[in-house]
């Protein structure tokens, strides 16, 4: 009896000690919950973001303002129910300081209420529907918005002989944004969208839609599909001889995603897209970024998802530094707002009012450079805010 009591006391004391040590350790830690799709249809997004986040940490160290940064990576399979559960678990059990990632819009929207309730900054590194930043005052975005890219394309197209356009978008948030902002701006610029087609997000079959486009025979087909789906659109577009039928292929840069572009073949040559990032962006900073990324991840070229992840880590690191490691969610959020810095994409700014990204939109054409296919920038709209915020 006595012995058992004694052992029990020791056990309790040991547990208390362990908890105390864990707490002390936790106080010295800064935890980032990175919720990304690592499996399923959007897996390349997660792969790119994780690789970029780890590269940022390797280059900048894992200790900031006396805190050891811990990256906790969770696979949400781009499924909002899973995202929500993971965000809750990370906040309650892991006591994360910041949540980040979010490969698709529904995932970001599912986590937003948890960010609000727990006062945890939520850094969107991938998802790109305009309204996400309005879903919670704790959202900060380092990716881009579809209205930015779509308006840039609708300004370029009519000046280059493209007046009559059919749009083809994935039927969810970013696709709806792309369709709407492209259409309104094209009309304003004297062109016209003659048909708007929406394809399902999950396992889309583009064939029947492309057949319809062929029958309509517009000057161009404008496409938005999420990262990872572009190669399938390109393949079917070419297989149907749409280019030979005189229909140009244009879109947001998600279509000619650097993660897939080099495998698309010569049929992709000449395709013009608008986006915030190309692995071929000719700044010294980007050259260093691409080189380091490719060295650390054999056979991989960084895409716009990688850059959203890399810049997101920068925003988190600098917020931690600015708050001297002492800040809670509110203070960290305040230190994220208004950050201005050079990104591999070019100059970048987190608008303090909207918490959304302000950056250049580039027009790019697919060309062969050094034996590989790249999006080569030939024009730029500087410092573009999200056009979605003015409505
Ligand atoms: C979204 C996802 C993508 O893969 C992309 O390229 C753009 C937007 C999204 O779900 O918001």
Gross morphology is globular
The number of strands is: 15
Profile the largest sheet.
9 strands, mixed
Query: What's the alpha carbon Rg, rounded to whole Å?
Result: 23 Å
- The average pLDDT score comes to 94
Q: Spans with pLDDT under 50 lasting ≥5 residues?
A: none
Q: Count the helices. How many? A: 11
Small molecules in complex: 3,4-dihydroxybenzoic acid
Q: Would you tell me the structural class of the helices and strands?
A: alpha/beta
Family: Belongs to the leucine-binding protein family.
Signal peptide: 1-24
Organism: Polaromonas aquatica
Protein name: ABC transporter substrate-binding protein
Question: What this model shows, in words?
Answer:
- With 391 residues, the chain is an alpha/beta fold.
- The chain is built from eleven helices and 15 strands.
- It has helices at residues 2-27, 43-60, 80-92, 105-118, 146-156, 173-188, 207-216, 230-239, 284-296, 304-322, 329-336, and strands at residues 29-36, 63-64, 67-75, 98-101, 122-124, 139-141, 164-170, 192-199, 220-224, 248-252, 272-275, 340-343, 346-350, 357-369, 372-384.
- Strands 7, 8, 9, 10, 11, 12, 13, 14 and 15 form a nine-stranded mixed beta sheet that branches.
- Strand 4, helix 4 (105-118) and strand 5 (122-124) form a beta-alpha-beta unit.
- Helix 2 (43-60) crosses helix 10 and helix 10 packs across helix 11 (329-336).
- The longest helix is centred in the first third of the chain and has 26 residues, at 2-27.
- It is globular, with a radius of gyration of 23 Å.
- The N and C termini lie far apart (74 Å).
- The relative contact order is 0.13.
- The model has no long low-confidence stretch (mean pLDDT 94).
- Bound molecules: 3,4-dihydroxybenzoic acid.
- Residues 45, 104-105, 126-129, 173-174, 226-227, 254 line the site of 3,4-dihydroxybenzoic acid.
């Amino acid at each position: 009896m006595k012995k058992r009591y004694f052992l029990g006391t020791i056990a309790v004391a040991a547990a208390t000690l362990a908890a105390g040590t864990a707490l002390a350790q936790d106080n010295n830690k800064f935890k980032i919950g990175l919720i990304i799709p690592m499996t399923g249809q959007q897996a390349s997004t997660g792969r790119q973001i994780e690789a970029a986040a780890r590269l940022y940490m390797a280059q900048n160290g894992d200790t900031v303002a006396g805190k050891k940064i811990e990256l906790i990576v969770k696979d949400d399979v781009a499924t909002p129910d899973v995202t929500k559960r993971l965000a809750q678990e990370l906040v309650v059990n892991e006591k994360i300081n910041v949540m980040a990632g979010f490969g698709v819009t529904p995932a970001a929207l599912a986590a937003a209420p948890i960010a609000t309730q727990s006062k945890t900054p939520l850094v969107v590194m991938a998802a790109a529907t305009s309204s996400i930043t309005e879903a919670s005052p704790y959202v900060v975005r380092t990716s881009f918005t579809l209205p930015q890219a779509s308006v840039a394309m609708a300004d370029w197209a009519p000046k280059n002989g493209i007046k009559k356009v059919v749009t083809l978008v994935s039927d969810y948030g970013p696709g709806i944004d792309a369709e709407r902002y492209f259409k309104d701006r094209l009309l304003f610029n004297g062109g016209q969208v003659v048909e708007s087609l929406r394809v399902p997000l999950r396992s889309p079959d583009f064939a029947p839609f492309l057949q319809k486009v062929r029958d309509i025979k517009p000057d161009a087909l404008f496409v938005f599909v999420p990262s990872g789906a572009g190669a399938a659109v390109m393949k079917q577009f070419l297989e149907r001889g749409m280019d030979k039928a005189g229909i140009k292929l244009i879109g947001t840069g998600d279509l000619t995603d650097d993660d897939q572009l080099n495998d698309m073949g010569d049929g992709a040559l000449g395709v013009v897209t608008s986006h915030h990032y190309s692995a071929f962006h000719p700044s010294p900073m980007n050259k260093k970024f691409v080189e380091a990324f490719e060295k650390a991840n054999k056979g991989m070229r960084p895409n716009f998802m990688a850059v959203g992840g890399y810049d997101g880590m920068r925003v988190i690191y600098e917020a931690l530094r600015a708050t001297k490691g002492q800040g809670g969610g509110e203070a960290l959020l305040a230190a994220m707002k208004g950050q201005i810095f050079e990104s591999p994409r070019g100059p970048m700014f987190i608008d303090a009012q909207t918490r959304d990204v302000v950056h250049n939109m580039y027009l790019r054409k697919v060309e062969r450079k050094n034996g590989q296919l790249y999006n080569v920038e030939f024009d730029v709209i500087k410092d573009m805010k999200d056009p979605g915020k003015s409505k």
